[in-house]
Every structure is written in structure tokens, then in C-alpha cells.
Amino acid sequence: MLRVEGLKKVFRSGESDLVLFENLSFTLKPGEMLAIVGESGAGKSTLLHILSALDRASAGDVYCANLHLNSLSQDQAADFRNRETGFVWQFHYLLPEFTAVENVAMPLLLRGDAWEQVEPEALLWLREVGLEQRAHHRSGELSGGEQQRVALARALITRPKLLLADEPTGDLDGQTAEAVFALIARLHREHQLTSLIATHNLSFARRCQRVLRLQRGLVEEILPESLPA
After folding, report:
1. Range of the domain at 158
2. Are 94 and 147 in contact (CB under 8 A)?
């Protein structure tokens, strides 16, 4: 599903180079759920951006869905993101002037699909996340947990092969965060997703099948059960 080979990311910092990570290699099989942990600034978000073709690595290769991401043009990368990946950020980034169902529908509308075709699919995904009754509420009328569930439905309406989540529970209180993580885990199973979740919550990471830790520019795979509950 995903193959990363010798990945390196360097940022220019004044007169010197800041190596965020290098020689990062791993594979991800279809259906796996992988947690990425590490301190702030370790490169978790940057790695997810590279894996979704939002950013390019300084060196190394990424292969996903039979595509070599390094070789994609900007238009091809945008099409890859729209069709092959779903992305959930720490902040929901819902468009405030649109309703929940319109926000969920946006990825398909951007393809040029007609509203009459898209609306039933958007309502289906709102039902999947338990929010069909809130379909016609704008984002400001929803709670933080509801906003994040709408964002999750928006990420999955294209039925992507790969779900990328960057601290998806980071802005939520403990009880709401637990509910959102449980929802992600359920959708991962039921829709046979392949998922990468960057998280500071080690209890959540422990419940994933595999864990990668980014630390001081290096990456290592650790056993989920070695993390604190």
C-alpha cells in the first residue's frame, strides 16, 4: 500500500541546514493502522504532508497506490490527494459559510460531480459518524467533537485507500477525544482502511497495530505494548 525508502527532509535555518529526519524507511500493508509518535518538532506533520503529496522530501522515495509520489506534477498530486487519500488535521478546517453536509460533499463537488449525486453520499457519511441529524447546521453551530467528526466524514467521502490523521484529537477534551479515536478505529476496520495517525496520545498509539517513533532525526519501530496505557 505504502513504501517509503530513504526519506530525508532538510530545512534551511539561517546559515545552516536543519535535518528534520533522514534515512527514514518503512512499509505499510493494506489494512494496517500505524501510529507515529514523537515530540513536537520531530517531523510527524511534515512526514504526513510528504506522504500525501502536500510536500516533497529532500531525498528518498515514496510509493503509494502504485504511484511514485516524487514524480507527480502539481495537478497529479492534487488528483492523488482527492482520490487516494483522506486527511484529517488537528483543526477541522470546515468552511464556516457552508452546512455540515455541504462541507462533507466538498471533495466530490471539486471533482465536478453534480449536487444531486453528491448529497446522498454526503448524508451517508454523516450517518456513518453519527451526525445525519446535524446535516444542515453550519460549523459554528457544532461542538468541537462534532466538527471533527464532520471533518472525518469529509476525508472519507472519496472512499480513499489511505487515511492520514495529524493529531486528530489534539484539540479535544479527554472524553471527546476518546469518542473520536474510537470512531476512527471503527471506520478503519469497517471500511478496510490503511491508516497513519500522528498523535501525542500514547494511550491511543498503543491501540494501533504498529508504532513508529521519530526522535532526533531518526525513526524506529517500537512495540505498541511498550507504550504507557
Report:
1. 2-226
2. yes
Rounded to the nearest angstrom, the gap between the alpha carbon of residue 12 and the centroid of all alpha carbons in its chain is 26
Query: Rounded distance, CA 169 to CA 145, Å?
Result: 9
Q: Are 37 and 211 in contact (CB under 8 A)?
A: yes
Residue for cell digits 510509493?
63
- Strand-strand pairing, 85-88 and 194-198: unpaired
Quick one: pLDDT at residue 210?
A: 94
- 168-185 average pLDDT score: 92
Contact 148, 178 (CB under 8 A): no
pLDDT at 47 over 80: yes
**106 alpha-carbon distance from chain centroid:** 17
Asked whether the predicted pLDDT for residue 11 surpasses 90, the reply is no
What CATH number does the domain containing 22 carry?
Answer: 3.40.50.300
C-alpha cell recorded at residue 172: 479535544
pTM (2 d.p.): 0.91
- The number of domains in the chain is 1
